[in-house]
Design brief:
- There is one protein chain.
- By secondary structure, the protein is of the alpha+beta class.
- The chain folds into two domains: about 190 residues, 4-Layer Sandwich (Glutamine Phosphoribosylpyrophosphate, subunit 1, domain 1); about 35 residues, no CATH class.
- The protein is about 35% helix and about 25% strand.
- It contains seven helices and ten strands.
- The strands form two sheets. Strands 7-8-1-2-9-10 form a six-stranded antiparallel beta sheet, covered by helices on one side.
- A hairpin with a 3-residue loop joins β7 and β8.
- α1 packs across α2 and α4 packs antiparallel against α5.
- It is globular.
Length: about 230
């Protein structure tokens, strides 16, 4: 199942993962992100522990390539797995097992990687990568959305479509954006709708939440409401 992008935005410091598939609730198992550690997308005949353990290893300073080697070494099912990851230094590593269902493969670039399996063909990840690279400078989430529209137009998951997700972090352990479509006949348009809704209130409210630098955040409801009103929130 699945194709995904693991990426960082060097201009904003954001890191994130986007994923789409013909599988239920892919956002619950595939994307794993933690600032100061990195990001892992685990897919194909998925091993969720690769995401959990990969983040833990990279959080201890283990580079992406060594982390991937350690994950695969202890997984007897490695040839049916697909994993790509990025460490906190922006180094990437990727694995597509030789027994992943065709079409399967991955591409690694300077600031992002793309991987997929059970796809209509190589053009799915090629087009996803092309558009993601070409939209540099746009908001991070919009780059993901545009790239996946291009991958879908190139054939997407050859079985069809069902779920999609985007998870983005900047500095905090909790996400700046975490939107999921778990079961929908058109998950990518629905994901774009949710992103648009997030900008109406959530994106503004999110800026007032507690951080490690400001553990109390902003609790003055009048200030929060004034910011929402100024942004035209409904």
């Amino acid at each position: 199942m699945t194709w995904s992008v693991v990426a960082r935005d060097p201009e904003t410091g954001e890191i994130g993962i986007a994923v789409a598939t013909r599988f239920f609730a892919v956002g619950s198992l595939c994307p794993h992100v933690r600032p100061g550690a990195g990001a892992v997308a685990t897919q194909a005949l998925i091993n969720p522990l690769h995401g959990i353990d990969g983040i833990e290893l990279m959080g201890r300073g283990v580079p992406a390539a060594e982390t991937l080697a350690a994950l695969l070494a202890r997984d007897a099912g490695r040839e049916v797995r697909q994993v790509h990851l990025m460490d906190s230094a922006g180094r990437f590593a990727a694995h597509t097992g030789k027994n992943c269902v065709d079409w399967a493969g991955h591409l690694v670039f300077g600031d992002f990687s793309v991987a997929g399996n059970m796809l209509a063909g190589a053009r799915v990840i090629e087009e996803t990568a092309r558009v993601f690279a070409a939209t540099k400078g746009k908001p991070f989430a919009e780059r993901f959305l545009d790239a996946f529209d291009a991958g879908e137009a190139a054939g997407g998951d050859k079985r069809g479509r069902q779920s999609a997700a985007i998870r983005i972090h900047a500095r905090d352990e909790y996400p700046d954006l975490d939107i999921r479509v778990d079961d929908h006949e058109a998950p990518l348009p629905e994901l774009r709708r949710l992103y648009a809704k997030s900008k109406e209130r959530f994106a503004i409210f999110r800026t007032f939440l507690a951080t490690r630098e400001n553990p109390a955040g902003e609790w003055d409801r009048a200030k929060i409401d004034a910011a929402l009103a100024a942004a035209g929130a409904k």
